[in-house]
Records
---
Amino acid sequence: TDFVVKLADVYPDGKSINISEGIIRARFRNGIWNKPELMKPGMVYEFHIEMMATAYQFKKDHRIKVYITSSNFPLWDRNLNTGENPATDTEFCVAHQTIFHDSLRPSYIGLPVTG
């Protein structure tokens, strides 16, 4: 499966504009130069998702929005969730992802801010 993180600026009227994003394909979580490793159902994994660097100033009355999703097609190719080659295989499998955020398995978003 994939995890995609998007950072957005939400205008006072509710319009949302993407500022930056990052993606990780779970089987390459140990690096693209290492052997791909498929996830096992029921296991909990930790991911570090780097977003593209940017310099951005949020205006007064704007809000910061973070999206976490498992796809950004067509910008990134679809993940079949089978471990097979997405360019040639035709079988798909639905991925069910959980992002934990409790005291035993905390999640966090680090956003460097200057001012």
Note: The chain is about 0% helix and 25% strand.
---
Amino acid sequence: IPVYSEIKKDSSRGAEKYWSDWNFPKFKATVYFSYKDIENNLDEYEEDTRNLAYKHTIKADEINPVIWNNEEKKVYGILYDIKGDVASQIQFYLTDSTKHFLRGAFYFNCVPNKDSLAPSLKFLREDIDKMIETFEWKDLK
């Protein structure tokens, strides 16, 4: 992870065991991660992520799904690139399609203004893309 960021276990009420927050303090931004084991419910998790991304439709100028596939590392997913004055500009999930499902939601801790946030969003989007591109599954059990 970049030196200007930190990952912490999600300690909020209702947080599950493998949930965490990737904080960017200088930018007042966070990627909230939630992890789930897949138990014949991958379609449900994918649809939940899609629904959460498209909840921003009312404020979004556009929502562009970007498909990620890395056959070698068995990492697949979709990143929803959400344009406009929205609360969350990036929503995504990664999965191996059999055991693991990781959802991420990016938020700035401020009132959304696409013009003033654009430089920071562009910079942090590169970090998110790099994380997705280099992501690998590791069994914790």
Note: The chain has one domain: 6-134.
